[in-house]
């Protein structure tokens, strides 16, 4: 719901982005240096992200990187 609301996506498309971000793909090696980025999100979303991170064994940073990567790829394809 949050992705849908914040980025003007249909709920179905937002769900697809989340599904793609959760695929058990090997972590992407950064092609360049990394920077720290602070992101504010609702408490419940942060709690769910951390819980998923623990369950999946994938860092919260990697989950967010994957989700952002999928989102940016889709936005490039559509405009």
What features would you describe in this structure?
With 79 residues, the protein is mainly alpha-helical. It contains four helices and no strands. The chain has helices at residues 2-7, 11-21, 43-56, 60-77. Helix 2 packs across helix 4 (60-77). The longest helix is centred in the C-terminal third of the chain and has 18 residues, at 60-77. The protein is globular, with a radius of gyration of 13 Å. The two termini are 22 Å apart.
What are its keywords?
0% strand, mainly alpha, 79 residues, 4 helices
Describe the structure concisely.
With 79 residues, this protein is mainly α.
Task: Present the secondary structure layout.
Layout: H1 2-7, H2 11-21, H3 43-56, H4 60-77
Helix pairs in contact: 2-4
Number of strands: 0
Class of secondary structure makeup: mainly alpha
Query: Oligomer, anyone?
Result: single chain
For the largest beta-sheet, the strand count, sense and barrel status come to:
none
Through-space gap between termini: 22 Å
- Residue runs with pLDDT of under 50 for 5 or more positions: none
The share of residues in helices is 55-70%
Strand content: under 5%
Number of alpha- plus pi-helical segments: 4
Write down the overall geometry: globular
CA radius of gyration is 13 Å
Overall pLDDT confidence = 85
Order of helices and strands: HHHH
């Amino acid at each position: 719901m949050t992705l849908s609301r914040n980025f003007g996506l249909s709920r179905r498309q937002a769900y697809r982005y989340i599904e793609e971000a959760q695929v058990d793909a090997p972590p992407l090696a950064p092609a360049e240096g990394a920077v720290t980025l602070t992101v504010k999100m609702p408490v419940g979303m942060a709690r769910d992200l951390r819980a998923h991170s623990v369950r999946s064994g994938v860092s919260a940073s990697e989950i967010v990187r994957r989700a952002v990567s999928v989102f940016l790829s889709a936005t490039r394809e559509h405009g």
